[in-house]
Amino acid sequence: RQADYAKLRDVEPFTRCGTRIQVMMNAGLREDISNLNLVGADGIGLFRTEFQFLVSATLPQRERQFRLYRDVIDAAGDRPVIFRTVDIGGDKAVPYLRSGEAENDENPAMGWRALRLALERDGLLKVQARALLEAASGRSLYVMFPMVSEPWEFDAAKSVFEDQLAYLKSQKKVLPEAIHYGAMLEVPALAEVLDQLLPRISFLSIGTNDLTQFLFAADRANPKLAERYDWLSPAILRFLRRVSLAAVGQPVDLGICGEMGGRQLEALALLGIGYRRLSITPVSIGPIKELVRQVDLAQITEAMNGWLAHPPENLRTTLAEWAAERGI
Ligand code: PEP
Ligand code: MG
């Protein structure tokens, strides 16, 4: 199989009906950069910047952040790299940053983490913003904020970047050619205010790992619950379809960057509810490209619409049978 996937490296993921699907890669460390060309991804759809913080004994200084970001952008060339600002806290504790308050979080996944922490420790976000803006000088920069729960949090985070941009401009530095700001949708409440959010952003990426834990109130790190709730359940798929319908006709790029998109049946279901951009773990890129090439979008869309209107006993089994009948 590995040899087959290597063959798919240079193959563009067009569906059978001729639609180009974006298959991007999730990354977070310098070592991941080499995978980008190895697997033939369309760019990095999620660069988890907190990894550099998690593997460091002390707070990574601006220069070190800058070097990492610049090297990733260089390696990606013309392909986009979506940098997610630090998602620290929750299961990603950084001892040198946590304050007494955060350590008392009883539910860290729902606690003082990600943007909530970054907006209060805005020195952290300022340094990161400077490092990213400088690393992307003369290029396009894609910045994504994690755990946005209300639109004002997006505005507040963006204005930290805009302030740094103004500073760099005053210093006559070479600025990025374009800056695209986006949000992650992983807190269900955000889906209820998409009419307010979408006009503010240029892309939206759904973090199905956290989204699922919040939708089902099921800790993603609890092994007892790992098999309990299925990504192919009508609750999740209806939710995701509602979001994709809300984005139709809006100038917003929509994608999925949770682990769900890297699994064959899940990816098939996502194509059937309107998703055209998946950012997934590198080893899944080959298999998902292979899947994409066998899919007829009209067929899977019609099937998904039927199943979501009247859910079968077990959507996973039904979808698996449907796929097998078509040689997918
Ligand atoms: C997610 O929550 O789905 C996601 C992509 O982010 P992380 O797994 O880093 O929380
Ligand atoms: Mg997340």
From TrEMBL:
Subcellular location: Cytoplasm
Family: Belongs to the PEP-utilizing enzyme family.
Listed name of the protein: phosphoenolpyruvate--protein phosphotransferase
